[in-house]
Amino acid sequence: MKRVLTTCPYCGIGCMFYLLVDGDGILVGVEPSTQHVVSKGQLCVKGWNAHHFVNHPDRLTLPMIRRNGQLESTCWDEALDLVATRLKEIQAANGSDSVAFFSSAKTTNEENYLMMKLARAVFKTNNVDHCARLCHSSTVIGLAAAFGSGAMTNSISCVEQADCYLVTGSNTTEQHPLIGSRIINNVVNNGARLIVADNRKIRLSRLADIHVRWKNGTDVAFLNSVMNVIIAEGLEDTEFVRDRTENYEQLKRTVADYPPERAAEICGITPREIVQVSRIFAAAERAMIVYAMGITQHTHGVDNVKTCANLAMLTGNIGRPGTGVNPLRGQNNVQGACDMGALPDVYSGYQKVAEPAIRAKFKKAWAVKYLPDGAGHAVTTAIDAAAEGRLKALYIMGENPMMSDPDQNHVRKAIERLEFVVVQDIFPTPTTRYADIILPAGSYAEKDGTFTSTERRVQRVRKAIEPVGQSRSDWQILCDVAVKCGYGGMKYSSPEDVMDEIAALTPIYGGISYDRIDRVGLQWPCPDKNHSGTAVMHAGKFARGLGMFSPARYRPSAELPDSRYPFLLSTGRCYFHFHTGTMTRRSRLLDREEPFPFVEVNPADAAELRIQNRNWVYVATRRAEVKAMAHVTDVVGKGVLFMPFHFEEGPANLLTNNALDPVAKIPEYKVCAAKIRSAP
Ligand code: SF4
């Protein structure tokens, strides 16, 4: 049995495990790595089952071209020729920005770097983005404004060093299980304090000192009020505020407008709860904020993130072990895809496309005469541009916008209007149905590369088996397309060569190389070969110098319940499935545990509507109606519904609202107005 050390393809924690390959080259199992700094011999249920989907019979194994409306298999040469020719033709007729590229949080760093290089160096457009737009774009922008870097400030090992947690908008035990278990251990065994601020009664709330069940979308009012109490009671860290921050007076003036009585009314909680939270958090020596998409996926997502950063700075909880603002990244390489510049306004390492000196550096390295300087389309605005006929072609690598993006009818109409759609993926998805060309890609088990985990740790991905059918690794396909376009700057012998180029051009990855991360990954910033990586950011000095207080005012969500749609619908994930279900729904054991689309309904609402547990129901919003199984549970509060978005046969994103945060362009997945009725 061959054992190949690699990194989990699911959540951003980045557990490493061994893939087990039998003598016939068949992937047969997974074995945790006892030596790994994070997993330490443990995996969650998704990790234990991470081999199942790889050899599923649905795998795409041949390139396909649409002829007379039907997809037919073809050879690589013809498929790649057509990709290059059609994209160039469309650009010649409509301009460089008539094409866009969706990169992928599931593929490696090297592949994301190559996708953004293909878009910029070959197709001369900054229309490149990926699904961080849909999960943590507010984090990237909000934390960069406050601290100068948009990543998790601390490490997973720091979680055990905290003596107080504020967990908000994160169902940690389900979505980041090995971080959730660390929090539980520290609370149960060492008496760490735990504040949970979340409308849902998540598992952590059972152990919490206080569980604040605020109304979804009132985060800014709540956190401003917590800071109001801290300042009013003199509990702030005056030394930290004086020495390490700027714009404090503005923060003070803003939060003064949120006394507990006013905020409690907005949030649907009591003033006493706000005061309790303030005192517990401010009293801690090492308090850590842990959040996920409950904070980011709002039309005020950037404000939410900035407000979390304000609270951490006000109490001096930044730059030390056991503290910090810690956004938990949902997908295996969403951190890396951002780091690699698969974003419309930056190259790798968040180097701005608008800065002439940065452009000059990349022009020289990539041997091109011109690189565009204006910000391109985000995932969400590209869909709008397609719907309006301004965008003509889309190249999608490892993404499934027909399931992941809000208001799917809008997305479908947009994609149908495109002249040319390329989809590169490992399985057929609702998005491949609209493809003019399908390029079959290799899974994580069939290629080399790196993923960067939520704690900024760059780790190896290793090839364990040969490609399935005629599939090719994404990095090879991207290089092949570049060659077909006549560009000579994307000829690499291996992903290691690509990483060497990334390190040379990207200061925060400057010290990363395959030999240095052979067994244990390194955490960026890692500027040179002698640097041992950075576990805790902003110690002594913020990446931007002083920390910037960026006060925000409460703004209601875009679409609130009313008499026609009286429920507040929130969407998210469940324990057994991952993202749009492409992989976990093809894992026999995972799909057996959660086989149906479901909606959580509070028992009081269910009784009023005569809905029994496990009845089929219809959930409707202004955009569509979806059938799902009712889970009658007090996990959700009265008047609230919750649906996961993994299920193609009951797609929650048919229902969601595509209202965007004005800065981050992230959609408001967490709040829209809905109604529910029994299915006949
Ligand atoms: Fe670890 Fe996350 Fe993979 Fe589970 S899904 S094994 S917690 S990396």
Report what the structure shows.
With 680 residues, the protein is of the alpha/beta class. It contains 22 helices and 30 strands. It has four domains: 2-48, Single Sheet (N-terminal domain of TfIIb); 64-133 and 332-523, Rossmann fold; 153-327, Dimethylsulfoxide Reductase, domain 2, CATH 3.40.228; 567-678, Beta Barrel (Barwin-like endoglucanases). Strand 25 and strand 26 (625-632) form a beta hairpin. Helix 7 (219-232) packs across helix 11 (271-283) and helix 7 runs parallel beside helix 13. The N and C termini lie far apart (53 Å). The mean pLDDT is 96.
Q: CATH fold name of the largest domain, please?
A: Rossmann fold
**What level of helicity do the residues show?**
25-40%
How big is the Rg?
Answer: 24 Å
Shape: globular
Given the structure, what is the number of helices? 22
Content-based structural category: alpha/beta
Annotate the secondary structure layout.
Blueprint lengths: L1 E6 L8 E6 L5 E6 L12 H4 L15 E4 L2 E4 L2 H19 L4 E4 L6 H14 L5 E2 L7 H11 L16 E5 L3 H4 L1 H14 L2 E5 L12 E3 L6 H14 L5 H7 E2 L1 H8 L4 H8 L3 H13 L3 E5 L1 H4 L4 H14 L9 E4 L6 H6 L6 E2 L3 E2 L3 H11 L12 H9 L5 E5 L3 H4 L3 H10 L2 E6 L11 E4 L8 E4 L4 E5 L12 H11 L10 H11 L16 E2 L23 E2 L18 E6 L15 H6 L4 E4 L1 H6 L7 E5 L4 E8 L7 E5 L12 E4 L6 E2 L3 E7 L2
Parallel strand pairs: 6-7, 6-16, 8-9, 8-12, 9-10, 11-22, 12-13, 16-17, 17-18, 23-27, 24-26
Antiparallel strand pairs: 1-2, 2-3, 4-5, 4-18, 14-15, 19-20, 20-21, 23-30, 24-27, 25-26, 25-30, 28-29
Helix pairs in contact: 2-19, 3-19, 3-20, 4-13, 7-10, 7-11, 7-13, 10-11, 16-18
The structure holds iron/sulfur cluster.
